[in-house]
Amino acid sequence: MTQFADKVALVTGAANGIGRSVAMMLAERGARVVVADMAPAGEQTAADIRAAGGQAEFVRCDVSDGASVAAMVKAAVTSFGRLDIAVNNAGIDPEVAPTATWEERTIDSILAVNVKGVFLCLKYEIEEMLRTGGGAIVNMGSAAGLVGVANKPAYTASKHAVVGLTKASALQYASQGIAINAVCPGAVDTQMLADNLGDPGLKDMVAANHPIGRVASANDIAEAVIWLCSAQASYVTGHALAVDGGLVIQ
Ligand SMILES: NC(=O)c1ccc[n+]([C@@H]2O[C@H](COP(=O)([O-])OP(=O)(O)OC[C@H]3O[C@@H](n4cnc5c(N)ncnc54)[C@H](O)[C@@H]3O)[C@@H](O)[C@H]2O)c1
């Protein structure tokens, strides 16, 4: 498919899970893709894209570090000449515990990746997109960016912040050709969910909380991201799209 034939895309957190699916799907549909991740396994995503006939480069990046993010965007432009699409997907959710028990350093680490990381990505991606006349950016939120989740106070705060950052930045750049949206998944069948649950037997219980009756696949989420990156969504900006099997309408 050649939907994104002339486009250059960057996906953070693309070594695994949702980010990997988004990167693979963008490449299948013709985009040249920068696979960014702090994990070396990102090289495998890029290699898989190339093996399937696509174009991809792996860039090692820690999104919580400004110099690293600036270098990632620079690498995209050096490799492929421009930046049209960015999916700020990297995120962490390392702790499930009541608010009163949280360690300060865990709060800091979640906010550093999930909030500052998205902020830094926006900063450098927008700078580049303004140079070439526009683009589409999708930030990875969560159902926890739309409603409260007990035992996940820092993650909930971080994903509400992602929605806020999305709206503020969308307003700022709407007239300059940059569309900025967020996707807010419910539970998605990735390593993050497995780590959160601990016991695999709990997955059925989580699935039952979603009106559709199952957790999402990474591809379910990638399809929504792809649409927001496409010309078909060109009149959509500042939106936080729940892709959650009906979780937050209950
Ligand atoms: N899995 C779910 O149930 C779920 C639900 C809602 C939202 N999300 C969000 O979707 C996004 C992707 O989650 P996933 O389930 O695919 O997780 P995952 O753990 O499978 O993948 C996350 C990827 O991000 C990378 N990463 C982590 N910190 C990074 C950093 N500082 N710099 C660069 N890369 C970093 C990891 O190496 C990993 O490859 C996250 O933002 C997450 O909060 C996930």
From TrEMBL:
Gene3D superfamilies: NAD(P)-binding Rossmann-like Domain. Pfam families: adh_short_C2. It comes from the Bacteria. The keyword Metal-binding does not apply. Keywords: Oxidoreductase. The keyword Oxidoreductase applies. It is an enzyme of class 1 (oxidoreductase). GO terms for molecular function: glucose 1-dehydrogenase [NAD(P)+] activity. Its EC number is 1.1.1.47. InterPro entries: NAD(P)-bd_dom_sf (IPR036291), SDR_fam (IPR002347). Belongs to the short-chain dehydrogenases/reductases (SDR) family. This is Glucose 1-dehydrogenase. It comes from Sediminihaliea albiluteola.
